[in-house]
Amino acid sequence: MIGKKKVRRTFLPYDPRLKPIARMLRNNMTLAEVLLWNKLKNKQLCGFDFHRQKPIDEFVVDFFCPKLLLAIEIDGDSHAGKLERDSQRQRAIEKFGVRFLRFSDEEVKRNLGSVVDALAHWVETQGMSQIEAADEEQPKN
User: pTM of the full predicted structure?
Assistant: First the structure.
């Protein structure tokens, strides 16, 4: 507990060899990733902190909110023909309690406002209840 606020820390394992890859991905983001990042950074989405190109386990997710345990993926050309691989990757990460929201590259570029609205709706309806449930599970001193 810090001050009067509970701090929920969930350690997610990651392969340290992914750190330079994540850094390279952050420096070479797609247009859709840049557009969405400009709406997520600095706690603009409902006051939550998001990270970009975050290593988790043996993978790197596009965006991640540690407090919500939410990964956001933008499926673009690099995902073409890799549906099964993406599904396996998602299932592996979901084992750590991480939830996924996926948007297409085109959807982000053409309807950024709708994507941000969908994210805010998820946070307000499902994300907040997930935090409340986790807070209830915390041992009381």
Answer: 0.84
